[in-house]
Amino acid sequence: MLHPVILSGGSGSRLWPLSRQNLPKQFLSLMGDLSLFQETVRRVGALPDVRPPVTVCSEDHRFMVGEQLQGVGSANGGILLEPMARNTAPAIALAAWHLVASDPNATLLVLPADHLIEDEAAFRDAVARAAVLAEQDWLVAFGIRPDYAETGYGYILRGDGLGEGGYRIERFVEKPDLATAERYLAEGSYAWNSGMFLFRAQRYLDELLRHAPAMLAATSDAYAAAESDLDFIRVDKESFAASPSDSIDYAVMEKTDRAAVVPVSCGWSDIGSWSSLWTVAERDEDGNRYEGDVISVDTRGSLVRASDRRMIATIGVEDLVIVDTPDATLVARKDRVQDVKAIVDKLKAAGRQEHLFHRKVYRPWGSYDSIDMGERFQVKRIVVKPGAALSLQKHAHRAEHWIVVSGTAEVTCDDRVFDLHENQSTYIPLGSVHRLRNRGTEPVELIEVQSGSYLGEDDIVRLEDVYGRS
Amino acid sequence: MLHPVILSGGSGSRLWPLSRQNLPKQFLSLMGDLSLFQETVRRVGALPDVRPPVTVCSEDHRFMVGEQLQGVGSANGGILLEPMARNTAPAIALAAWHLVASDPNATLLVLPADHLIEDEAAFRDAVARAAVLAEQDWLVAFGIRPDYAETGYGYILRGDGLGEGGYRIERFVEKPDLATAERYLAEGSYAWNSGMFLFRAQRYLDELLRHAPAMLAATSDAYAAAESDLDFIRVDKESFAASPSDSIDYAVMEKTDRAAVVPVSCGWSDIGSWSSLWTVAERDEDGNRYEGDVISVDTRGSLVRASDRRMIATIGVEDLVIVDTPDATLVARKDRVQDVKAIVDKLKAAGRQEHLFHRKVYRPWGSYDSIDMGERFQVKRIVVKPGAALSLQKHAHRAEHWIVVSGTAEVTCDDRVFDLHENQSTYIPLGSVHRLRNRGTEPVELIEVQSGSYLGEDDIVRLEDVYGRS
What ipTM is given for this predicted complex? Predict the structure, then answer.
């Protein structure tokens, strides 16, 4: 059976300020309603004879993965939590161990969570052909037929034909300079290395044994000692930490003698930068892509994204990327967007938060957004999902006022438990043990006004938590 | 005696989004802590033998003018409210009528509220020389010695010398093309028309009698029928409406045979656009002027203004103006900022509000800022100044929750009056007659959560108001 393995480990800063460590690119709705992760889940769900997807992600993103899987009604083949980033080869090894345990003949379709594929029929066809090669014990990379001389990707040079439109891989080549990329394009035997693969799980583990035995051992130990926590499989931290960090390309694909490539034209993009998003987006006749409330005069070749309750006006500008969020706006020349990394580095160096968190922070129970802040107060808009509850908690330095503006909240405050309806309020004194729960079927929205001398997120004692965070 | 007359009638859209109809350029702190209006007040206050300034402004800005005068501890020579805009000549006539009533020998120093003057000693010197000429019954225009070939200003050509560094005005000339401006600059006998004047009030009225008798009559009637309201002098609307609308240049200066010019170099700017603000601002070695939280990479020749609790990041951009406010961000090429007008026109045409009001709205009692909004709720941060009170009011469609986060508020709710301290809250039911007052010496800050089916500002019945608005 075919088991999709979705690698969702990226913490992508290249689409900052929209993508941040706590809510990276794969979880954002960049093109349409679904996130890139959800599009990936939906896409693999449409394949024939396919099992529920296995997701490999970081601890920080586990609730987001769970929620987004639910959001597209997908079954869940397992959510494997990496205790730390170790690149793609160990992540795939975890998935392989997980799958061979129940299906010794499992075939893995490995997909990064954050890629765009426009022609799904072509993709499905390529998967079917790769699956035939995988049965013949090939490890198949999907190569993208280049339609221009891209210098930002690695390339795969194909060798002899293997049938099914597949080829032996002659060699992998690093990101070329422009002249080389143009030659690759002209020669026609090179394809972009998409980071998507298909092979039998056991075969992958066998290759690790030959080419990366330390990685095989470390991931085997990490998975064997894994603990289940709600929907999540938390592998052993110490064992996983012992694994070498390496990509599947270096660790396996470049070393095995069974590497194959299936070239495909499927409207693929890794959306690796704001300019590549502009490239794949529909644009107006002046070459502009606008999202949200944008008013422009004489603007050309630009990507402009406004955020909620805010407008952006542009005059006489060309080839810009303007991306607005509630706490940060980026204005960059479109051909310089790779330097977003330099901004993120400056934020890190300054000990700031804007590369880590959005103003609106997602939690397993819903979200909060810090809508105002003063010297001794903070105002948050809190949304609690149906059926969800915050932890039973208390604060040492702040009191809280809650005003429900939508839905009905169940409030615990010390020894009282009571319902709070729309347009009702309550007061949580400093030090009180309290909890907020939504027992209804619609989201509860409330405004929280915090008052106190210290208002940091770390002023919290969790006494009980349904999400295992106490 | 010398009476400064400050013309504060502008509703300047050229510095949108920072300048809006309800809070135009003259009231903004563009360079340093004081607003341009306050800088003007402070500057004239430093002149020798000067009386308190008379301000002419629109009805909408009266509380702002009063507050900003107080803010710099200035005495108040009268705040004349124009019922509608009639250009500068009638506005100055109102001030002349106001002043000759108590001081028949009053000399007026007429100054737009929104100009910048860097060399105050040169300005004071020019005023002293102009005052001598005014005693000889000249109407003196201050001409700015051009330091480059500006095409955006009118020019004044000087004639024979009159002593005191003054000259007869040979003629006024309209905004020239670049070649003409360059010739004016080379010839040395042309000066920019600054819009600043000095003359005896009675002489000005005499000139109106000869050259604009309808204006004289209308403004005389309007002032004679004026009503005092708190600190304000509200001239008669019907009479004032009958006045022709004209500038002092056309109505008087170009017609009188007693027009003089005193050329001066005093670091003058009318800050008529974002690019002229950039020109006069101190800049870093890359030619950038940053205000607020700005992080940049390879940025040159740009003006970037971030707003509170928001950062702006720039990469690889050049000669841009980026101005951020809580609800709108402008990104414009620096040499295209005059087209801000086109954006404002689009906002008008769309029936929007962003050219009229800021998210934070100033009221005579303080301010409110709409920090969040949902389908059936709105959250405001309200600041009540010491000694101030909102009107006694009620709403037909909304209830309100108030949480005090700083200071102590006196709350009236139907027949109860009580104090609300920091970290205390109260509920104002729909339909209740209520009032908020600050009897303390520090500002009261509170968070208001409105809940209801309609949340517009017009759902208000004012039963009593200390500011005469009920």
Answer: 0.92
3-state secondary structure of A15: coil
CATH assignment at residue A399? 2.60.120.10
Cβ-contact B337, B413 below 8 angstroms: no
Find chain B residues with C-beta within 8 A of A373's C-beta.
Answer: 309
Contact A331 B322 (CB under 8 A): yes
Closest to B39 (Cα-Cα) out of B90, B74, B87: B74
In tens digits, what is the pLDDT along chain B, a chain of 470 residues? 899 999 998 777 899 999 999 999 999 998 889 999 999 999 999 999 999 999 999 999 999 999 999 999 999 999 999 999 999 999 999 999 999 999 999 999 999 999 999 999 999 999 999 999 999 999 999 999 999 999 989 999 999 999 999 999 999 999 999 999 999 999 999 999 999 999 999 999 999 999 999 999 999 999 999 999 878 999 999 999 999 999 999 999 999 999 999 999 999 999 999 999 999 999 999 999 999 999 999 999 999 999 989 999 999 999 999 999 999 999 999 999 999 999 999 999 999 999 999 999 999 999 999 999 999 999 999 999 999 999 999 999 999 999 999 999 999 999 999 999 999 999 999 999 999 999 999 999 999 999 999 999 999 999 998 888 77
Domain enclosing residue B376, as ranges? 360-464
Both B320 and B432 in a single domain? Answer: no
Q: Are residues A187 and A78 in the same domain?
A: yes
My answer on whether A211 and A165 are in the same domain is yes
Residue of B18, B373, B401 to mutate when probing chain A, most A C-beta within 10 A: B401
Cβ-Cβ contacts under 8 Å between A and B: the total is 188
**Which residues are within 8 A (CB) of A181 and not within 5 positions of it... i.e. 6 or more apart?**
A146, A149, A150, A151, A155
Number of structural domains (chain B) is 3
**CA–CA min distance A328, chain B (Å):** 5
CA distance A449 to A447: 7
Q: Which of B269, B300, B318 corresponds to the end of one domain? A: B269
On whether residue A355 sits in a domain, the answer given is: no
| Phi, psi dihedral angles at B60 (to 5 degrees) | -65, -25
